[in-house]
Amino acid sequence: MSLDLIRVLVADDHPIVRQGLRTLLLAHDDFDLVGEAQDGEEAVLLAAATQPDVVLLDLVMPQLDGIAALPLIRKARPNARVLVLTSVIDDDMVIAAMESGAVGCVIKDSSTGELLAAIRAVAQGETVLHPRVAQRLLNRMGRSTRRNPFDNVTERERDVLRLVAHGMSNNAIAVALGISCAPSMFICAICSKSSIAITVCSSRFTPASTGIIRAQSTEHRTENREPRTKGCEHF
Questions:
Q1: All domains of the chain, ordered by start, with CATH?
Q2: CB 150 within 8 A of CB 194
Q3: CA angle 123, 70, 97 (to 5 degrees)
Q4: Is the predicted pLDDT of residue 31 greater than 90, yes or no?
Q5: 3-class SS letters over the chain
Q6: What are 134-181's pLDDT values in tens digits?
Q7: What is the pTM of this model?
């Protein structure tokens, strides 16, 4: 990854969205917009050609949608951090994207500050979730299916996730629930019991005003750092 600039590739089929993102990124001197793709196929080609640090990826695109393009982007540029930027909050699509290697999801009606913070966070090896994505996880947990991956989630873990979905900060959640351990460990436990354990563990929440939830990725840990997921199985 560049030491000075965050190399960003934008993949969205709407010209007005690409134009807005271009204007936003070029207005900040820590970003380098290296390419713009209008569909999934072009995104894969540009990922290989431009070697971006971060890929802003829409999920609904022609030719090849974001879900199908994501593993190909990861293959073309293994070190790229894929941040889903979508207006369609479909829990199955979002979870499929996370399972395919996306490191976060931001909603298109997020503020410019939230989006910039999300890009910078994933570039630094963190995972970013919008509170509405957390709400989708809650909805999924509430479904009655024969093989619900959230069947083993405890009521306290559900309480934590509900407050996450409301955008509460780490400290506020601890106070509200009267818990002494980090609420992030409950999120880690939830993820370890679900199909998205590989992408949303060791959560480190931002203040509620930022509108996003951030988690340190296990992919960017140094070898001498103790894994922050230790003890998840105890919740």
A1: 6-124 (3.40.50.2300), 132-234 (no CATH)
A2: yes
A3: 85
A4: yes
A5: CCCCCEEEEEECCCHHHHHHHHHHHHCCCCEEEEEEECCHHHHHHHHHHHCCCEEEECCCCCCCCHHHHHHHHHHHCCCCEEEEEECCCCHHHHHHHHHCCCCEEEECCCCHHHHHHHHHHHHCCEEEECHHHHHHHHHHHHCCCCCCCCCCCCHHHHHHHHHHHCCCCHHHHHHHHCCCCCHHHHHHHHHHCCCCCCCCCCEEECCHHHCCEEEECHHHCCCCCCCCCCCHHHC
A6: 676 667 666 545 455 556 667 777 787 777 667 666 677 778 888 766
A7: 0.66
Which two structure tokens, joined as six digits, stand for 135?
Answer: 């709400």
pLDDT score at 97: 87
CB 30 within 8 A of CB 5: yes
Rg (C-alpha) for the chain, rounded Å, is 17
The amino acid at residue 159 is D
